[in-house]
Amino acid sequence: MDYLKAFVVGGLICVVGQILIDKTKLTPARILTSFVVIGVLLGAVGLYKPLVDFAGSGATVPLSGFGYNLYKGVKEAISEDGWLGIFTGGATASAGGIAGAIFFGFLAGLLGKPQEKS
Questions:
Q1: Which residues lie closer than 8 Å to 26 by C-beta, 6 or more apart?
Q2: What residue ranges are annotated as transmembrane (predicted)?
Q3: How far apart are CA 31 and CA 28, in angstroms?
């Protein structure tokens, strides 16, 4: 049942993104950035944690989950380090995911045949 909940919630988040791409004049970059900001805001008002508890990776893998992760990192860092945590918390909380994305992107570039679009 956990897999089904993750699939449905993650799929619905992606459907919202696709509808925004298809039906609005927003660029994909603005939509993706909006998802991160929405994740931060929903985390700050306490609405994203219940979604994560319900759907697990279906809520944490999309970009809104990245925003929620940034929020959690900043919140924890502020409680430990004071206002300096605003600057360090998000980077500390998301460092593993960012490092993984860079590593696997580099690996894909090595194994693939990158070329310019014409």
A1: 20, 34
A2: 6-22, 29-48, 83-111
A3: 5
